[in-house]
Structure formats: C-alpha cells, structure tokens
Queue: 4 jobs
Job 1
Amino acid sequence: MKILVPVKRVIDSNVKARVKADQTGVDLANVKMSMNPFDEIAVEEAVRLKEGKEHHAAGTASEIVVVSIGVTQAQETIRTALAMGADRGILVQSDTDLEPLAIAKLLKAVVDEEKPDLILMGKQSIDGDNNAVGQMLAALLDWPQATFAGKLEIAGGKATVTREVDGGLQTVAAELPAVVTVDLRLNTPRYASLPNIMKAKKKEIVTKSVADYGVDTADRLKVLKVTEPAKRSAGIKVADAAELVANLKNAGVL
Amino acid sequence: MAVLVIADHDGAHLRDTTHKTVTAAKAISGDVDVMVLGQGASAVADAAAKIDGVRKVLLAEGAGVAQGLAEAVEATVVPLAAGYDAILVPANTDGKNYAPRIAAKLDVAPISDIVEVVSADTFVRPIYAGNALETIQSADAKKVITVRPTAFAAAGEGGSASVESIAAAEAPKTTFVSAEMVKSDRPELGAAKIIVSGGRALGSAEEFAAVIEPLADKLGAAVGASRAAVDAGYAPNDYQVGQTGKVVAPQLYIAIGISGAIQHLAGMKDSKVIVAINKDADAPIFQIADFGLVADYKTAVPELMAALG
C-alpha cells in the first residue's frame, strides 16, 4: 500500500504570532518555522504502518511519499519527514500563500499522478486554523473521508478510524482509497536520529511548480486586514479563597 | 438572497448552537431556512421551526446523515445549494467534518470559524490560535461558512415556520461502526455558564475527579481540562479546551493547575471572567486572569468550597 502524506511548514507551535503594524498579516520574518504538529503525527502513523509498529501488521505500507506545497524552504519540512522514515518527497513550489481550495486542487493533481491507496494528513494547520484541506481533497477525489482520527486500523481494504468527536468517540470504516486526517492523540511522533537525518539527505525530493499542474489557484478570499484581538485588562491577585468568592459575587458571575 | 443553516442536535433536542448560527445567518440575509439532518428527528425540526425569523425547515432523514457521515451530508446538501447564497454550519466537530466537503463540491472557498459578520461577503475569523483576527472578503457567489457559536447571541423563540421533508442521501463507501459517548449529568462544555478546568498539576485521574468535579458540581459548572491533563489520561479527550479541543466563552472560567499555554488560551480567552489558581506566580495564565490566586490547589480548592458555603 502506498501512502501520501501532505505536510506544511508553519510557525513553530511554541512561538506567539505577532501581527504586523500595517495590519497586512502576521510577521514571519526571523520566526522559527517547523512542521505543522498534526502533520508530524500523520508522518509518524505512516511510518508505523510501514514498520508494523503498535497494532499495525508489518509492511501494511510499502511506500511513503511526502508532499509539501510552499516556498523553497519547505524542503526542510520534507527532509524532516524523510528523516522520520518517509521514502521520498515532492515539493510543489509556490512563493505565494495558497488557500485551502487551491491546495486541495494541487494535492488532487499529485494524487492523480501518484495513485496512493491512503492519504494521511493533519486535521488542521496551526497558522490558518481552517481544518478544511483533507475534507476538500476527499470531495474532489470523490473518496470517503475519516477526519480527526484518534485510532487507525487498516484491514480488508478499509481504514477503520476512531474519530474524536464532540461528546466522545465515533468509529467509522472507510473503503480505500480514502483520506484520513489525524488528531493529536493518534500517536507520539518520534525524533529523527542523527543517522536517519544523514540518510534522509540522500533521499529524493522532486521539485515541481504550481504551473506544472495546470490548476486554477486564484484566491477566492481577500484579506482586508489582520488585527490583534482585544487585550484583556490586567486582573488582580487575591489573597485567599474568601476574597476570591467576594470578588466573583461582585462581578455578578456567582 | 437566502441562507441555509444546518442544525446541530442530538437526535431528540436542538442545541442552542443552532440558534446562535441563525443569528449569524440573519446578519447576512432576512431569508433563513434551517435544515435538520437526522432520523426520527421530527421533534428537532419542530423546535427549529420555532426559532424566531426562520422561513422554513427542511427535514432530511436517513441513517447516513443521522450518523453525521460527511459523504451523506454533502450529497444531501449540495443539490439544494442552488437556492442559497450561503450555507452556515455551527463550527463543531460535525460541521467541521462536512462543511469543507460541501464547499469543495461547489468549488468555493470555505470560511472557517467566523466570529463576526461584517457584511454579506465580509467576515472576521481568528487565525494563529486566536493570536490574530483576519477580516476576509469572499469573491465566491456562494459561501460555505462555519460559525463559532460562542461569538454570537442565540436567536429567540416565537417563530412558526413550516416543516418540509426532503430526500437524504447515503454514503456508499463509509460505514458507521460504533459510538462511545461520554455520559455526563453536568452542563455541556460548549453551552455552560461556568467551567471548572483542571491541568497537569492535578497529577492523576483520581485527583482530577476528587478535586475538580466536586467544585464543578457545587457551582453547577461543566468540567474542562488542558491538553496536558487529557494527554496524561486525567480527563477524557472531549473535556479538552483549546485550539485543538473546544472553544468556550462562559461567564466564569476557573483554571486550576493550568499554566496557560498559547494553545489552551486559544480556547478560553473570550470568557467573561477568568480565575486562575496556580502555585507558580509566573504562570502565563495570570496574565489574562481577572482574579488570580497564587496557592497550591490542595489548600485553595477546599477553602474555595468552604467559602462558597
């Protein structure tokens, strides 16, 4: 089984985003960038499917292809996935930030070429917070989808996925090929070891451009401005529980 | 210009997230229809018909849509899209699951988790874990939008719309296997007026249950948790408040033993009053708390229980 894993280079999750003074966006100059945390979980699960780790049968996955759409530096993100155990990478170079619809269309074009049996990807990126690309890709391909996966089993031509939903867990079975988007608790991603980082340097990354796919990537949404959310006014420290309760009663919330 | 709102319900009761989404819809157009997807859900449709300002209710019943399978919902909603300029869905896990799928089928850009309707084509939504707000204008003729319920007031009752049955599609390639829902007598996290939330400092599931739950029960509050507490197994997944869990905005949010990581704050910083109880005076949570108590929860929570009488 061949698995395609889309990954995104985003602001590191420990960095607090700062809005630019001219309100055109978030300042990403000299900010630490990393692989989107949900995508790390998707890569880890793909590698486990190949290794037969945890509850997966060994060799469930035969090849793991990682794809990223973005600037040249997204190569580093692909390289990280290769060091974790993916086999080869594809970079679709784009100097502009593309919207989820355009990303989904480009990914569909990659899927049409690569013909994977399973697409494993993060449920959302921590920059745009859209939570949309996986669902859109599944729709464009007319494949079933299983989002917010907290547990994944591959058997009998199906992906059986326990989804993290409001109020609890739901298990669905999706016929392969399918798109599965992963949630935080699916696994704990590994750190790439130094030998694997060295080996990853020899693995292939093919660079393509958006133009290679003949896909309409025009923006549908115009960002009018990006602003800082209202700041909360500074609070007070109370000395003890009694003072706390008195303050809450005063504020009308008790 | 008409707007379709897809209702949020549990099969028997309409959730107030639907009323809140109707409020957002009314800011776009005066003609608001509500669609109820379910099975044996006529009571839900009747409840939706009573929401003030609703033009009509569409009831689509079938197994696939009742189980919230995205493929079935998409195939049910897309053929009706021609009659609407916008489709609005509460941004809960169901809505997030199917709304982008509908958008892709309609070849439009989905707009996720809006917190404000500026005009019929312009919306505000949080990005970067709520550290920035983006105002976007859509060029699409049709819009598919998920609505953050906590950002809108609930539409009132008093309507008397008609209920119309329509055909529901199924999902041929996806099968529902099972559901395991957390049973709770407490208010729902998303709708609660007060939330008591616990973090990693609690140290164990037993301690979490022994400290957080009695306080929540005393206050009639829902129980929340930080990701650290959930990951450590102290609380179930669906208690998680934050960027990747639930976004809440209660009247009162009490954070106990929670340091206040960016991802947690993304889920609760719009609460009206925030209380932090933490023994680390430098914990980031104190920067946004209205009332902070620097103390060990082991002594502070029993004292708080006593002070509440």
Job 2
Amino acid sequence: MAQIIQGAYAQRNTDDHPPAYTPGYKTSVLRSPKNALISIAQTLTEVTAPHFREDQFGPKDNDLILNCAKDGLPIGERIIIHGYVRDQFGHPVKNALLEVWQANASGRYRHPNDQYIGTLDPNFGGCGRMLTDENGFYVFRTIKPGPYPWRNRINEWRPAHIHFSLIADGWAQRLISQLYFEGDTLIDSCPILKTVPSDEQRRALIALEDKSNFIEADSRCYRFDIHLRGRRATYFENDLT
Amino acid sequence: MNNRIFTQLHETPSQTGGPYVHIGLLPKQANIDVFKYNFDNQLVTDKTQGQRIRLEGQVFDGLGIPVRDVLIEIWQADANGVYPSKADTQGKKADGAFLGWGRTGADFDTGFWHFDTIKPGAVPGRKGSTQAPHIALALFARGINIGLHTRVYFDDEAEANANDPILNSIEWVKRRETLIARRQERDDQVVYRFDIHIQGDDETVFFDI
C-alpha cells in the first residue's frame, strides 16, 4: 500500500465537552465568550505541533514522590498512575508531552495564591511531566491528593483530582483536563465535573483502581487512559495545502 | 443507533486549568524549582533566523478586568513559513534553532503577558491558497472550561490579511479587526500589542479548529 496521506483531524464533538458558559461554575460566567466559536477548515497551522526532546527531561520528572523531596519523603498515600494515550481511532499517540499538577495529601497547593489551612508538605512540589512511549504508554508516581474547599458556593469541595495537559502531534489536539479517583463520593457533587454534559464522559475522567498492579509493601496503582482527536487519511483529493 | 458494529473512542472531555495551572505548566512562576529545563516565553536563540519581535498584551473578562491567572501558549511557523513539526508537508527544511512554541503566564499583579519571538513567514492555506503571517494562540484559565483558540495577525501586513482565507471566512467583517495586532517601536524593538477580550462588546474571535 502506498504511503498514507494524512487529512484533517476529525471535528471536535462539542457535546462531549463542557460548554463555555456554565453558571453552576460561577467563574465561567464572566470568562466565557458570548459569541459562538467560528469553526474553520484546518490548515498546516492546526495539524502541526512542536516536538519535545527526551534530553530536556530529568530522571525524576515523572516521580512526584522524589522530585521535590529535601529532607525526607512526602507524607501521604503512595500511588502509581499509568495508562495509554490514543487517538479516537485507536492509534497510539507517541512522544506526546504529558504534564501533571496537583495538591498534596492535605489538599494544599504549592502556589502563592493558595491560603487553605491544610498544611504544606516541605517534601512535596506537586508537578511532573513525561513523554508517552512508542505504544502511547505513560507512567508517573505521586502522593494521592486530598480534596480541598473552594469558594464557589461557600461550602464547595473539589474531589481528589490531578490536573493534566497534553501537547501531541497536532495543535488541534491540545487538551487540558483533570482526572478523578474511583469511589470518591465528592465526584457526584462537583460543579466543575458537572460542566461535562454526559454521564459517560464524566466517567471517562475517573481513574480506576488497578489492583493487580499494586506493588506489595510499597504503592497502589490507578489506570487512566486518555483519548485525543484523530486524523483521517486522504485517498482522493488532498486539499490541506 | 442500536446497530452500530464499529466503535470509536470519544475525546477525553476538557476541564478548566484552574487557578493554579502555573504549578504544572510554569512551575517557576509558582516558585517551584523542580525541572532542569523549563519551558518559557523565549522562542529565539542567537541562531534563530528572522526579525525579532515582542508580542504582548492583556486578557480581559466580561467586566473589562484583566485576567491575572491566565496561561497563554503560541504556535507559529519559522521566518520562512515552515513549521518545525513532522506534520509539515511542505518539504522545506525548518529552522533548526526554532521550537515554534512558547508558554507564559500573565503577571499576577498587572495581567500583562509577552513573548519574545520572530515574525513568522506566510504559510500555505488549503487548495493552493496562501495564509497571511499569523501566530496561533491558545488560552487556559480558571473559569475557562475548554481552551480558547484564536490567531494573531499583524497590522503591517494589510495586503496579505485582505487575502487571508481564515480572516475572510469570518462573515462579520467588523470582527476580523479583533485579530490584528498593532505594531509599535519601543527602544529599537518591534512590539505588537494584542489584547484579548473574552466577552463583551469588542469580543475577540475564537475558533473551533
């Protein structure tokens, strides 16, 4: 078979995502466009993206347990999170930049604007990053974050969650989201998770307990797969350029 | 719907980057020193080809107040209009000293952001057309559920802008103006000012790409 010519990325299914204006999440009210987005036919600008090199990464970049440890280990539940990044057609997404950030075991962020009474951990930073491998696989190690309170309604609490960001093969795939943990009862009351319109898509953000991959006397494990938009192949006219 | 015999995956749904997006994406701005190599807003090195420019501005909410926790990324071609990406099919060699991508956060006090980069060359459009020089820009923040995509064009490229297929696809001609950055010179430096209005009367055009 001749070499495959790539066409455009499949259209983003807006019903699979939160709308911009979601009044239950109050900050969105003044930070959402009034006008409809303008959909464009993709060009080289939208189907290209930067490449990151392995040598830009340090050995502990994906180890949040050790990458900010100074005089000891951070306090909290030791967990490993792993999974695959694929496109919507099932193809592995290779060498994608996956970045993560989170609160510590107390639900406190290492950020100048976080004043929550939950205590900072001197041995925990809360950020990590990695590249997916040839199979789209990624793995990182961390402390399970605690839930934390925030001012939306006055007694609002986020479920435990880890933020993540992906830069892959095309600018059109750029994605930031959050993963949650199986069984957390706060999941059902979170106004941020409720911005996602369908139950099936909300479930797609919940990492599952992966018991057979627990490491005895050391760490538990969660499995979380990520799906990005995929490109169609072109077998007839190629209008991209 | 009940008789589907193939499955396709659904894209993972977006969620807001939240107010502490800097911890993961700009740890130095959160005073976290963890990585030996940090991504930033400097796209040029001594070896990068092309005209140096600074791109700067603020992002405003629906009340006209600067968004001081916004995170911005840009993606652009090199001085010859070639993307440093395997997916660029022009068959021309991209500038080896140019990543084409950068990331910054607005200042926590003033809301100003900037990038030091080069002015991109024109890039092919669809079906043999030519796009005016432009920079793709995405913003993420607390209150923004899905990253907002826009494009930055240049006011000293009026002729190219008039023929740009994407600008011309915006039916409301008046709204095209919101995508044009204004050139100024400051201490021998070329600066383009690009303010973004998320909501309201002079709302910036955002794209579904």
Job 3
Amino acid sequence: MAVLVIADHDGSAVRDTTHKTVTAALALSSEVDVLVVGQGAKAVADGAAKIAGVRKVLLAESAGLGKVLAEAVEATVLPLAGGYDAILTPATTDGKNFAPRIAAKLDVAPISDIVEVVSADTFVRPIYAGNALETIQSGDAKKVITVRPTAFAAAAEGGSAPVESVAGAEAPKTTFVAEEMVKSDRPELGAAKIIVSGGRALGSAEEFHTVMEPLADKLGAAIGASRAAVDAGYAPNDYQVGQTGKVVAPMLYIAIGISGAIQHLAGMKDSKTIVAINKDPDAPIFQVADFGLVADYKTAVPELMSALG
Amino acid sequence: MKVLVPVKRVIDYNVKARVKADQSGVDLANVKMSMNPFDEIAVEEAVRLKEGKEHHAAGTATEIVVVSIGVTQAQETIRTALAMGADRGVLIQSDTDLEPLAVAKLLKAVVEEEKPDLVLMGKQSIDGDNNAVGQMLAALLDWPQATFAGKLVIEGGKATVTREVDGGLQTIAAELPAVVTVDLRLNTPRYASLPNIMKAKKKEIAMKAVADYGVDVADRLKVVKVTEPPKRAAGVKVESAAQLVESLKSAGVL
C-alpha cells in the first residue's frame, strides 16, 4: 500500500509536525510520499526529501495553496488520491481544515487526531476531551487521517528522495484577505521541550507578561495559557492549551495559577512531567501534577527564579 | 438571508466522561446532557445576524432554522436554540450516534430542502472531538468553507471570516452560500429568558426520520473498544520553590 503525507510547513522549511506524521505513515506502509502544497515552496520540498523513509516528494504550487485554502488543497489532492491507500496530515489547524473536506469527496470517514497506529486499518484516538481512548477499525478502502504530532517521534533526517512537480489548484470561491501572526522568539508551543503556562490567577495582561516571560526565558521555554487567561485578554488566543487550543506534550509543563479544568487537562496531560503552582490546595491540577507547590505565584515564581540560579 | 444552524446534544462540558466497564463506550446513562458549547456560539451568532447586534446590520438573517440529528430528547436542545431566538427546528430522529460522514450527508439533504444562504455551526462536538462535519458538508455541497471563525462579517454576498489558526489569525472571504464553523471566541452566548423559553414552546419542530432522506448512514468505522487513558502516577507536594527545583533536577527533568 502507498501512503501520501501532506506536509505542514512555514513556507521555507517543513515543520517538525511533518516528521512526526511521516513516522505514523511509516507504521502503515514503507511506501510513503510527501506532498508539499504552497507557493514558492521548492526549498520546503527539498527539505521534505531529506526525511528518512520518504519515497518521493510531490510539489504543488498555486496562490491558493500558498495560504493553504481548504478548497485548493482538496482540488490538488483529489487527482492524486487514486494512487494512495491512505492520506495523512498533522492535526494542525490547516490539516483539520482540509482533511475532512478531502475525506468527504472520497466518500470515506475521516479519522481525526490519531495517537497510535495499531495496524494498517486500526487506530487509537482520544474522545471526550481525552477522558477516553477509542480504538477504531476503518472499513473504508481509502483512509484520510489526521495525526496528533505529540504522540509520535519525529522521523530522522538522512533521506534523499526525488522531488516531482504536480499541478496545483485554486480556490475559486474563497479569497485570502489578511493574516496577523503572533511574533515570538521563543520555541513554538507545539514543539517546545519546556512550557510554562499561566492561568486566570495572574490577574492582568501586564502581570502575565511580567511573571511568565522572565521565567520562560530562564528555562528556554514556550509560554502557554489556560482558556480563562486567554478569554480575559491576558494572553493571545494562540497561547491556549486545551481541548480547543493546542495539545502539547513537553518534557516539562509548569502550570502557574491554573486550576486544571477538564478542557485544559485535555491539552497537556500527556506531558512527561507536570508541575503545578497554585495557592488552592484542592485545585484539580494537583491530581495530575508530578510535583505540586501550594503557594501564591507572587512569592513562588521569584523564588523559583532564584532557585534556578 | 436564511441561516441553518446544526446543533448537537452532548454530554455537559462540566461532566467528566466515564468509560463503561465492558469497554463498549462512554457511560451516558443518567448523565447531564446539554447543547454542544460551540453550537451555542453558532446559534448566538445567527441570532445576532437577525437582531443586528454589534457589527451586524439588523435583518442580515431573516430566518434561522435549527437542525439536530439524534434521539427524541434532542428536541430539548432544539428548544434551547429556539428560546435563544431561532425561528423553527427540524429533528432527524436517530437512536444511534451517527458518524460525521453520515451527519454531513443528512445535513446536505436538509440544505437542499431548506436552501439556506449560510450554514453556521460549531467547529467540533466535545464528545467525538472530530472537527469534521462542517468541512465535510461544505465539500459535499461544493460550497466554500470558513472554519474556526473568531469574527464573522456578512457583506456583499460574502462571509468575511477571521479564523483562529496556529500562529495567529487569518482572514478569508468566502462567497455565499458557505459553511462557517465557529470557534470559542466568536461571541458569548446569551441565556434564554423565561418569556423566551415560554415562546419557544410554541415554535414548530418538524419531526423527521433518517429514512426520510434516503441517505446511506451506515458506519464506516467499527469501535473496537473504548478505554480509560493511562492514569498518571500520584505526584508529590513540595514545600518550597527551592525543593521543587531540587526535585526536578534529581528527576532529571532540569
């Protein structure tokens, strides 16, 4: 069987999420091709060709693909779909946007956000905000799957696959208007080894930045936030960790002033080590924390900074 | 403009789901059920399109039809939407929880019957967490889609939607008719007032059956088992920040 991975990239290089999806694809088959959709994305395709285990890279370019409009991705992938038994892409906002669209056109059930490949037709995925794991077997001849990147190791570099161009499509009824990306020099939330995350207890946007940024810089960490902190305007939407935000699984997750609602836990409870700093000893976050410190963040964070040296 | 809003009856978001001992699924007996939180946001936005709240011109939406697919009790979910300001409801009765593909096919049939200019719906249901039906419906209709909407503007035959994407925000314009799926920050849904709850009782809910639509709703996925996620080992409480750093160092984390 042959598998097509639709790459996730930033316009100049493939993201780590693509490497992780290739790992999931290789668990299905050894015949793994990567499709890079974009505009002026030759460098991305060359990067994808270096992922170990990749058979060949297909490069499709168009204006619509540059902004990853779902309709353009769908129209690009459909003519290629005949040659593949499975189509995989990371469960990023882009992947979630176009994968179900492709599945519907192929008349197959999409399989969202898998965390394990049991066999070529059987997968594990979380449901109910991660409170249950569902093992499902697909009866469809073709499978369209999104992969939760944090659940798979990244495929190594060292390949040298050929790159071929394929036709790119447009999205006739949709136009890109603008984008506003959050600028950050810190590690990307999804790929960070350490995440410090702040909640509503921080009280204001100023306080959030004053407290979280020096700590994140000291640890080389990414900054996350609970939904309460995002809704209150303390942190940008993009920082949100949880069922409706990002799902992360860093080596170390430090939750500061976060109570630990079900929806937040859904986004971080697979972290290797969880630390909770909260002044409420009964906060649910302590039930999943490996190390808990019952203290006000106002005293605990400065002490933590000095203890880190 | 006619707006169709699909809503789903799901486990209340505050309830922690329990896996059944026989691993056949999640135990929903005697569990509080509510409207999927994202669907409430979709209903709210549709009502604002009608009332002309915030940046919407009054009367942008002229009729709001709410549709649900599920058990008889899903009427309560539709009734909630009617109390929020929707005009009428359609319930397609089904005793089993249908997969997103089947739901999208049924919704397509409803769209062909109702001919809305806009389908506004939640980005995902908090039970299946699939995040698929809106995109699939758009594909089946060959309509454009705008998912994860944090802001919606209807103007000049287009839905201009600011989408919440990884890394920030993206604004796209989709020609109507279109499918828009909503994210959490689009709005804060209202509570239905008592007079509106009373009025909602008089609004019509058309009762339909899956068979009325001649759509193949057979499951494509077989649930092999549903299990509890692995439990985390009990943690320890430390006394001070210094002890915390020490513990993290000895655990090899720092």
Job 4
Amino acid sequence: MIFETVLIIALGILMLSILANLYRVVKGPSSADRVQALDSVGINLIASIAVFSVLLHTHAFFDLILLIGILSFIGTIAFARFIERGVVIERKR
Amino acid sequence: MKTNDVILKSVTRVAAVIISTFSIYLFMNGHHNPGGGFIGGLSTASAIVLLFLSFGIEKVRENIRVDFKKLAAVGVLIALGTGMAGVVFGQPFLTQAFGYYDLPIFGNTELASALIFDTGVALAVIGTAVNIILSISEDR
C-alpha cells in the first residue's frame, strides 16, 4: 500500500516536471530552448512509463521505453540540423 | 560550407546497429508479445532515416542499393500471396496455417504463416515511410 503511494507521488512529481518543461516550450525565447525542452519532455515521459508499468504490474510497456528513447533522439537530431543548417537531409548538387 | 560532425557520425554508427536489432526483435516477437510488422517496419525506417540525417542521401543510397518503391510493392505482393495461398488449398481468403517443426538450433518451434504476412506488412511500411522521407527532401 505504501509502495503504491510512493509510486503515485513519483508520478505526480514527474507530471509537474513535464508541466515545467511545457512552460519552457511555450515561453522559450529561442528555438533551441524549445527543442531542448521537448527532448526533456521525452525523457520524463520514459520515466513516467517505467513508474506506471511498475504500478500496473506489467512488462508490456518496456519496448515502448526504448522506442520513445530512439524517436526522441532522432527528432532532436532532426531539429538540431534544421536550426543549424536550414535543411534536415543534405544532398550534394 | 564544410562542417565536421564527427560526434553525430560516430554515435550513428553505433546507434543504427542497435535500432536495427531492436526493430528485428520487435518484428519477431509480435506473435506473443507487443510488437509486429507495423512497428518493426517503422523502427527500421527510423534507423534508415537516422542514416540519412547523419550521412546524407547519396552516401546511403550508394551503400543501400534498394529501390524503396519496389520494396513497398514487393511487400504488398507478399501479403497478398499469403492470403491467396489459403484460397489455393480450399480455405477462405487470408486463412493462416501453423505447425510445429524441429529446427536445428531453436528446437521445437511453432512456425506460422502469419510471419510471412507480417514480413509483407513490414516491407510495405519500410518502403512507404522511406519513400515519403526521400520525396519530401527533394527540394527542386
């Protein structure tokens, strides 16, 4: 019983962290701040899924953790290249 | 403008192998666990997109010599062929068969024809996703 309470408190703290990151996404002065905040939202989402699957006594969501990590990595790289060079995928002329 | 992105290229060389292995894992255990052809194909496409992002289109295209339009068509034909195999043996369309075989390494294994259908779905998804990415990256 107390274990589930601790898990629910951890989920609440992670939700507050996601809300703080969303504040930085909305308010951020430069677009690099927004990209970094979105990456951090992805990491907090991974942590929430881990806590949530412990809470539900299932291991059906463990693939999702790795998949969100991969997709967040590729999305951050694509945004970083777009900010830096203006194109996402380079091609020689 | 010649930029040196050695960190991105080094990370991509390791991460593309891991993502491809993970996508094959997702594809193979779709019968009993979460996964399957669609998500396996999408994660393979994400590995190919990561290669496109860090190495450029020409370098990847000359190393992976696959026409992705033909790959999508071959996937749809494989999925359709497993459906038509049921019709040939007098069953309804898309009937699947399975059996238990003794394989050399894996021992007693259940082989189902749904895996071939999933292969078709995965090839169609890879071809469609990579083809969309390649089409919208040509800005001419």
